[in-house]
Each structure stands twice: as structure tokens, then as C-alpha cells.
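Now for our target.
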Amino acid sequence: MSIPQAVKINTPTARGKTHFLSQPYHREVNLSYLLITTALYLVATANTGFFEQVLNVYPFIKNIGFILSITGVLFGLMWLVLQLLCYRQIAKPVLITLLITAAICGYFTDAYGTIFDTNMLINSMETDQAEAMGLFTPSLVIRVLILGVLPAFIISKIRLKRFTWQLSILQKTVTLILSIAVIAACLLPFGDQYASFFRQHKEVRSYANPITPIYSMLKLGENYIKELRRPDTFTLHATDARRLTPDNSIAKPKLMVFVVGETARADHFGLNGYTRNTTPLLSKQSDLYSFQNAVSCGTSTAYSVPCMFSYANRTDYDIDTAKYNENVLDTLNKQGVNVIWRDNNSSSKGVADRVTFEDYKTADTNPKCDVECRDIGMLDGFDKLVKSGSSQKEMAKDTLILMHQMGNHGPAYYQRYPKEFEAYNPVCMTNELSKCDAQSVINGYDNAIRYTDYFLSNVIDTLKPYEQDYDVVMVYISDHGESLGEDNIYLHGLPYKFAPDAQKHVPTIVWSPNSNSIDTESLSSMVNQPVSHDFITPTLLSFFGITTDEIKGASTFFKLAHSN
């Protein structure tokens, strides 16, 4: 055999191998088959958290048929949603986006029990870079690469079959009918059980991924369109507000420090009967009142903080219109109160847009920064803060100083306090809380509470020297609570209707010395009564002697003593 003949014989074999290796990328795939495969893939890889929630309610051994039925319904819904979103021209970009979204959302749902409703999406978009990096973990990167980017890359290389428009419409119609039939076939045999499931366990269905994030994004888009159509107007409140003139001509000016806590839950405060003494310094302070039954307006900072200072009650509050409405700080400012907001969190969420705002998340202003800037730094230069706007020739002004804590912001609780406050060990030293045992997560959280105890006690000690010249008081209320792994739920932000009490029951503390104008008996009588964020606006106006029909008859945390 000659050399040319040998070459001629080997050439077809080489071409055959090349064709075989490239075949997956050159084979045309029917879009309908791709959607079915993707739906199955998303059910299998992105819904561990959903099935965990289902199994918590319906143990597998006793509910095999129902669990299989729920799996079928989830697949049918996923298939239906994909068909409604995907058409040949846009199918690949949509599927790629959904795969990566599902991988990201699936990680946070599995690791922290996060539900991606509209409030959580807003909270995510308003998270600053430092907070976002606190959630960035190797596990997140690996999961997104393997379960999101890799399948997305494969889909990007697939060639979709072309059909005539008539055949495409027929195929789309048939597959839509089939997906609805799958859902119906799985629902009907367990109709009674589904009626109970949808009525009593609404929160479970919110874990479906990426169906819930898709719905929430569409809802946000709808809200955005509504906002574009909204007239560019600003609603004024308390337009009839007026200051009451004290009968006593020697009445002292008012000075309140209002601490907006972060992610603190009431049942982990020693003052409230917690088995650990997480509040050793506050426990030694006299004239301290800790409210036992306080609930928040929302379960996330982005929702709760604007609501806290709103003129709307929790039931009437609308986060979409909050920015178009004046809040109580605006009224106080208009009425001559010196209002200053110091922030060691992400922002005031729009509350302090029209009053003095000072950022304490930077070492340029906060003198107490190590691995991060500490809340205690917000007390720096307090005397100048109180005296601002006043001179020796003028009466000191009524002053409200608001301090927005970093507090217990998760999941990296171990970073929320200096090392000397680590009283409880071992501590979960990662932001992947589900990888730690429950007690180490709680230990880190409780250590952070002890640092808040230190901060609040220092606020009180800072105020004490002003008692002679000012009518002083400190109010502390957390924006929301926190889940620490109960029922495999971490962090916060669940929809209010079915969020656990741990995310809504918040610590509320008032320090009120006998030297001020607050009626002690009114405070004592309220500490065991149900209270809420709704009490904040009326309380602030009442303390500073401002009346308005808008809050007439509204409940307050305390009442002022009658002047003689």
C-alpha cells in the first residue's frame, strides 16, 4: 500500500470524529422539547427550599401521593410559564436569564429561606455594595456556575428548528393545553387537600422558584409603569400643625435621641425575659421601660423604616407612594425642631431626604471603625450636635437626633461587634448560616445584641448630663426582627401575612428620667400593652408639643405630664 492510499483511507474517519463531536451544537432542537426539558431541570435543581417547606407540612411517608401531585403541579406551572414567556425569536435569552436567576434565587432560598417577593426585590436593589459583598460566598459562585451558567451556555449553542407560523401556532396551542391538562390531572384527585394547602399554607407556594421571582419582577414592572404615570406631586401632611406653648414659662427645651434598631428581635433581649442576660448594661440603668408586645410595620428595612415615620398606619401604608408623602420628620422640621439623622446603615430609605443627614458608614466621619464602622461612633461630637442652631443669646432649640444602627444586620452576625463582646461561643464565622449548627448562629446573634446593649447604655449616659438644661428622653425601636433557623428560615423579609413572629416582634425601649415632662405612670401602664410602629409618629409629635387633626386620638407610647 502506498502512502497516498493510506492518507486517503484515514481522512473520512477523521471527518467522522469531528462531525460526531460537534453534533450536539449543530443538531436542531424543537423549542417545545427544550421547554419541557428546562421545566423539569428547574423543578429538580432550583426548588429544594420549596420541597423542604412542603415536607415540613406534609411528611413524605404519610403523603406520598400528594407530594407527587405537588411535584406534577409545579412542573406543569413551570412548563406553562416557560411557554408563555418563550417564543422562537427570544426563547434563548429568556431561558438563559431564567436559569441564572433560578440558580441565584435557589441558593438564597435554600441557604436562608428567602422568599423573593416584591418587597425582597426592592430590599435587594437598595442594598449597598458592602451589604451585597456580605452575602457573596464560594457556595453561591459554585452553584451559579454549575446550575446556572453551564446550562445557560449549552442553551446558547443550541440551534432551534424553524417551522411555518401556522405550525408554530398549532404547536404552541397544543403544548399550552397539555401543560394545563397536567396541572388539572395532578390537582383534581387531591382537591380537598389543595383547598387546605392554599388556604392555610400560602407561604409555602411563595418558595416556588423561579415562578415567584418572575411574578415579583412582573409586579415590580407593573408598579414602575404606574409610577411613571403618577403625577409629579408631593402630598403634604399635617398642614394644620401648630406648636403648643407650655404654660410654664421656664419649660426646658426638648431633646430626644431616637435609635432606629436593625434586625433585633425582642425575645433575645435579657430585659424581656430571655434566658441569657444579653442586656447587662441596660439592666443596670434606672428609669428604663421595655415594651413586651411591640410589633413592626414590615419585615425588611426598605419597607419598615419609611413606614415607621409615615402618617399612615401599617394597614394603610403603601411603599409605592411613601416617597411622595411628607413624613413626621418633615412636620417636626417645619415646626422648628432641629432634626438630625445619623446613619450607620445603608440609608434612611428616603425618610431624611429633607432634614440634616450625616453618613457614619465611613471613617471620614465615624471615628470608631475597624472591620466596619461601629454604631458607637454616631455619638461623636454629640455636644456640638445638640447646640447646633443655638447660641448663648438664643434659647436652645428643641432637638431630635435619630441614629440608624447597623445593629444585628445579618447574615454575618460575627462582624457586628468588636471581639471583646464575644460572650457566647462557638460562633458561626460564615455568612452561610445553614452550614453552621443552630446554636453557633444564635451565639453570634446574641453577641451582637450585647453590643447594641453597650451602644444604648452609652446613649443614655451621654444624655444624662443634659438633664438639667433639657427635657431628655431616649427611644429605641428595631425596624424588624430576624429568623435564626427556625423551620429552616433565616434572616428576614418574608411577606408580613405569614412571616413568623421572630421577624415582627421587635424590642422597644424608652429611657425616661424623672426630670422630664413624661408621665411615668403612663409609661408603666403601656409596657405590657400591644404597641407597634404606628405609635411612633403620634409619640414624636406629642413629645415636641405639636398638634394636628391628622393624628388626633392616635395612641402613643407615653403621655406628657400636665403642666401646673
